[in-house]
Structures are given as structure tokens and as C-alpha cells.
Amino acid sequence: MTQPATPAKQEGPLLDGGGPRKSTSGDGAGPWSGRLFRPDVRTLSLIGVLVALALIGGVTKPDEFLATSNVQLILTQASVIGVVTVGMTFVITSGGIDLSVGAIVALASVWATTVATQEYGFAGILFTAVIVGVGCGLVNGLLIAYGGMVPFIATLAMLASARGLALQITEGKTQMVSIPSVLDLGERDAYLFGIPPLVLVFAAVTVIGWLVLNRTTFGRRTVAVGGNAEAARLAGIDVRRQRLYLYLLSGLCCGIAAFLLIVLAGSGQNTNGNLYELDAIAAAIIGGTLLSGGRGTITGSVLGVLIFTTITNIFALNNLESATQQIAKGAIIVAAVLVQRRTSHTP
User: Fold this and answer.
1) How far is CA 136 from CA 83, 110, 212, in A?
2) Which of 41, 89, 260, 340 is most open to solvent, judged by the fewest CB atoms within 10 Å of its CB?
3) Helix (H) and strand (E) counts for the chain?
4) How far apart are CA 304 and CA 213, in angstroms?
């Protein structure tokens, strides 16, 4: 009698929000694809890129790039978009997308810096920024999870609406912040052991995001929904509610980022957060988060943010045109997607 075939043993989940490993046999990918797919190898590769950029900056502008003030500037600039990217990583891991993050940051920043809001002081500005961000995320989540709208369309509509509302609130003018306790957070006197407060907030959001994605049921459900929504539903996961929570989380990150931007700029403008959605998506992609969903990495996304911010800083120090900078970013994104397709074998 023939023995019944035993099911193949599935490998365990990847670190840092990864789904199950996909087979590399029979597709001509070769042994390197499996190695590049490993989270530790991917993370080390990103660190290597960051070190290479630091060497380039140190060689081209040693006195300026390696200065403590410049390193603090890089980390501070990375903090705002970094917080947004943490939320974006969750959304993309679930198989979604959020094109409205930049517009939500703009709307939250101008709403939190109106004269009426500033009458309530520090708490009023922080609370308003967070509530506006969460409110926009709630609208996105309801439209996508319960309204059946495609994430691309729903968040694109939010992008247009939030930008328009931000412009209407400000009437095209810059709203200056007059509250000393808010402005003082951006001053050097507020640094803790040489670390700007914005960087500390970014670090806290990163740690919390990593723990939630990798050590909680919420994170496992996020990966499951992104890997196969129907299988997740059959396994008892409320897919619609999970998606709603994810867009609420993205909105919360946008609200926090808006407050950080207010501290950094000392004002609120309807042009705030311009192209943040593209920067956040790009950072998540080069960090190893799959656009198709099912795998996400907070560590990789943060490294992606630092890589892009460092590139921007090097270009600025060397007086290179912003057009060249955008071309470089585009090339990096294309290379990252090609590597993803090679290592994960997405069709």
C-alpha cells in the first residue's frame, strides 16, 4: 500500500512582522534570493548603505557633515517623516495604502495653530493635532473597511479634501505659534544629553510600533490580513475592523507628526507635509515592507527614512539641485522594488 503524503512542514514566521517564507525552489531564483529575503541580511544591507552614505558625506564635506549639529539636524528632520512612516508600514503590511498622510499632517498642523486653538496652550495644540489626525484616519477607515472603497481612491479623496480644508483655514497664510512651551521644545536648551526631544518622540513611536507589530495579536492579525484577507476572515479575524484600526493608527501617527512639525517650524502652513506620502511609502519599500502586503518591518522602514534623510542632507551640503535628488530617490525606489520581486517572487 502506498503511504499517504505528509504535508510539507511550513517554516516559521519571519522576524519583524514577516509572513511565512515562500519557497525558492524551482523558480530559478538561486540561493542568493533566499539569503536576501532573511530579515537579518536585509537589515544589515540597509545599515551598510547608511554607513556608505555617511562615508560619502564625510569625504565630500567632512567639517560640515560630521558636525554634531548636522547629525542632530538629520535625526530631527527624520523624526517627522519617520513617525508617519511607522503608521504607513502598518497600512502597507495589511495590503493597503494611504496617500493622504501628507495632507492630514498639513490639516492637523494648521487646525492646531489657529488663534482659537492656541488659547488653550500646549495641551490644546497637541490634543487638536492628534484628534484631527485620528478623525481623518477614521474617515479613511470607514470608507475603506465598511464603505468598500479601494484604499487608493479613498485616501486620494482625503488628500484632496484635507489639502483644500487646510488652505481654507489658513487662507494661504502662515500661522505663527506664540506659545513659549511649544517653541522651547525646538530649542537646544531642551535637548536631553544632546538628543533633541523630537528624536526621543520618534524613538518612542518606533519602539512601540515594533512591539505592536511583532509581539502582539494586533500585529499578527495585520500580517495575516495582508497575506490573505479571505484566509484571515475564515480564521476568525474581523478583517473590516482590523483595517479600520490600521487607518486610525495611521491618522494617529500623522497627528503626532503634525505636532512635531509645529515644534520644528514654529508655525502651521497648508503646504506642510508636501510629498510625505511618497517619502513614507518609499522608506517602507526600501526597508523591506511588501507593497502587496503580508510582510512589514519597522526596523527597515526607520532605516529607510534615515537613508533618504541622509541623502537629502548630503545633496544640500554639496549644493546639488533638488531635481538630481529626486532622480536619485526614484532610482533607489526602483532598485528596491526589483530586489523585492526577486527575493519574494511576487508576480
Assistant:
1) 16, 14, 22
2) 41
3) 16, 2
4) 17
- 8, 118, 145, 263, 340 from 152: Cα distances, Å: 37, 34, 13, 31, 21
- Predicted local distance difference test score (pLDDT) of residue 329: 75
CA distance 167 to 264: 20
Q: Do 57 and 263 contact (CB within 8 A), yes or no?
A: no
pLDDT tens column, 218-232: 999 999 999 999 999
Position 333 in a domain: yes
Which residues does residue 195 pair with via DSSP β-bridges, in sequence order? 192
Interacting residues of 157 by C-beta distance below 8 A, sequence separation 6+: 143
Q: What residue ranges in the chain does DSSP mark as E strands?
A: 175-176, 267-268
- Is position 251 within any domain? yes
Residues of the chain with pLDDT under 50: 1-15, 20-34, 36, 346-347
Q: Kindly tell me the burial class for residue 274, based on how many C-beta atoms sit within 10 Å of its own C-beta (0-12, 13-18, 19 or more).
A: middle
Q: Which domain holds residue 317?
A: 33-344
This prediction's pTM: 0.86
Would you give the DSSP letter of residue 192? B
- Please, are residues 130 and 255 in contact by the beta-carbon 8 Å criterion? yes
List the CATH number of the domain containing 233: 1.10.3470
Please write the tens of the pLDDT for every residue from 294-341: 999 999 999 999 999 998 899 888 887 777 777 877 787 787 777 666
Residue 93 contacts residue 294 (beta carbons within 8 Å): yes
List the end-to-end C-alpha distance of the chain, in Å, as a whole number: 40
Domain count, the chain: 1
In single-letter form, the type of residue at position 214 comes to: N
Q: Quick check: is 10 in a domain? A: no
Rounded CA-CA distance 214/15 in Å is 7
Phi first, then psi, for residue 268 (nearest 5°) are: -125, 130
Residue 138: inside a domain: yes
Helix (H, G, I), strand (E, B) or coil at 200: helix
- Amino acid 13 reads P
Q: How many CB atoms lie within 10 A of CB 193?
A: 5
